[in-house]
Amino acid sequence: MADDGMALRVEALEMILVEKGYVDPAALEKIITTYEHDVGPRNGARVVARSWTDPAYRERLRADATAAIAELGYGGRQGEHMVALENTPEQHHVVVCTLCSCYPWPVLGLPPTWYKSAAYRSRVVLDPRSVLADFGVTLPASTRVTVHDSTAEVRYLVVPMRPAGTEHLDEDALAALVTRDSMIGCGLL
Ligand code: FE
User: Fold this and answer.
1) Is 97 a catalytic residue?
2) What is the bridge-based pairing of β-strands 144-149 and 155-159?
3) Is the terminal CB of the chain with fewer CB neighbours within 10 Å at N or C?
4) Active site includes 100?
């Protein structure tokens, strides 16, 4: 279905829910505004930077990402069951939701349009390397690429590799380097 069709359907559904009294439009607006403006990929970037600089935090993130992310104050809707996926020279992780658009809101905000597109959702499963190439990412043949399908139960945060030559940077400066796409696995940084 085209995105326009989807937007109209969502609008129609919202109208019906509001009319029938199931949904408070002010509350709905508040949720959308919060995730559009207050919660965004900077949260995830802070988690990544902390894991790069604090080995004990990195261990906690591996063991229980939901709890480790909550330590930094991020949690709630769509982030109840987080799993952190660490990229290494041997292993690159990419995240998709093949069914719809499940996404870790508390750490990345709202998903980008391409994440919700049918093209991304189908192609990344069949041929992740060609999708990565579209994002300007070329990995060595020796790097294994694994695609993870988000569900209502599990949301993923990809932890990109810390770039070489950043030993002198502090956590804030490191966080500033981390992009949203890299935390979905569609960018190196
Ligand atoms: Fe989904």
Assistant:
1) yes
2) unpaired
3) N
4) yes
Average pLDDT over all residues of the chain: 92
CATH number of the domain enclosing 48:
3.90.330.10
User: Amino acid identity, residue 11?
Assistant: E
Nearest Cα to Cα of residue 77 among 117, 39, 42: 39
Rg of the chain over Cα atoms, rounded to whole angstroms, equals: 18
- What band does 90 get if pLDDT is binned at 50, 70 and 90? very high
pLDDT in tens, 145-156: 999 999 878 999
Residues 25 and 101 in one domain: no
What tokens appear for 107 in the block? Answer: 């750490």
Euclidean distance between CA atoms 145 and 112, whole angstroms = 22
Q: How many CB atoms lie within 10 A of CB 90?
A: 9
**Which residues partner with 4 through β-bridges?**
none
Boundaries of domain holding 107: 41-184
Q: What is the CA(116)–ligand 1 centre distance, in A?
A: 9
Q: Which residue has the tokens 């990109």?
A: 160
